[in-house]
Amino acid sequence: MDIVKLNNGVEMPILGYGVYQVTPEECERCVADALSVGYRSIDTAQAYYNEEGVGRAVKKSGIAREDVFITTKVWISNAGYEQAKASIDESLRKLQSDYVDLLLIHQPFSDYYGTYRAMEEAYKNGKARAIGVSNFYPDRFVDLAEFCEIRPMVNQVETHVFNQQVEPQKIMERYGARVMSWGPFAEGRNDFFTNETLKAIGEKYGKSVAQTALRFLIQRGVIVIPKSTRKERMIENFNVFDFALTDEDMQEIAGLDQGKSLFFSHYDPEMIKWLVDLVKK
């Protein structure tokens, strides 16, 4: 397993297992399967409502807590210093752990400055080994990074072959932050799994479209957290360290970049209003 070193020296697996859209009922089983395959990084969030499943699976696995890297995220409804502080403790309770390895702000809405202050405090108190953000576009990332005490170590954003985050990654790296991909398979959009470019390149190495896409991101230094509820797919996604793409392969895949989201834009007022209304209900 390849490791990346965050800007505070904490080491994190470059490949992990994500539990977005994994139901609370099946989360424990899925995480247990992922751990048995060899994954040692698990990504969850308050808004996924499955932190308990992650905690139970890690606890029952017999793997030492320090050998599993757990990420969770503070949701919009818990924004602000006091609410975020309480929610962090609640997440730790659900995860059955005294700390998380990486704590992120899930979305840049409501009082995320207050949220970040609570996270900085959690970091200082040993409740989080690293802190960062998620879904922060470069403008908001720079604003927060310039005015916070502890600079974000990670920014988890939509990153896949059709939205490669090339320029944003350069900005994050200037501030010492790593890009972490959500949706590395674009959730199958744009006919991802039948893409001819990825298919042709993968065939040269006896690899699938999914493995080729993951390898592309990994070689760019992007942290990836593919999700599947099927153990055979978990195994497939894990087996991406026994081959390397050539410069020519990388350039060809780079040509797939459309430079925009396949899901939503934070610059769209209607989308933001929809998301905020969901939280207020």
Automatic annotation (TrEMBL):
Molecular function per GO: oxidoreductase activity, acting on the CH-OH group of donors, NAD or NADP as acceptor
Keyword NADP set for record: yes
Keyword terms, alphabetized: NADP, Oxidoreductase
Site for Lowers pKa of active site Tyr, residues: K73
Residues annotated as binding substrate: H106
Coiled coil: none
CDD domains: AKR_AKR5F1
Record's signal peptide: none
Domain NADP-dependent oxidoreductase, residue spans: 21-256
List of catalytic residues: Y48 (proton donor)
A matching Pfam family: Aldo_ket_red
Listed SUPFAM superfamilies: NAD(P)-linked oxidoreductase
Cited InterPro entries: AKR (IPR020471), Aldo/ket_reductase_CS (IPR018170), NAD(P)_OxRdtase_dom_sf (IPR036812), NADP_OxRdtase_dom (IPR023210)
Gene3D superfamilies, alphabetized: NADP-dependent oxidoreductase domain (3.20.20.100)
UniProt record similarity statement: Belongs to the aldo/keto reductase family.
PANTHER family xrefs: 2,5-DIKETO-D-GLUCONIC ACID REDUCTASE, NADP-DEPENDENT OXIDOREDUCTASE DOMAIN-CONTAINING PROTEIN
Protein name: Aldo/keto reductase
Organism: Parabacteroides acidifaciens
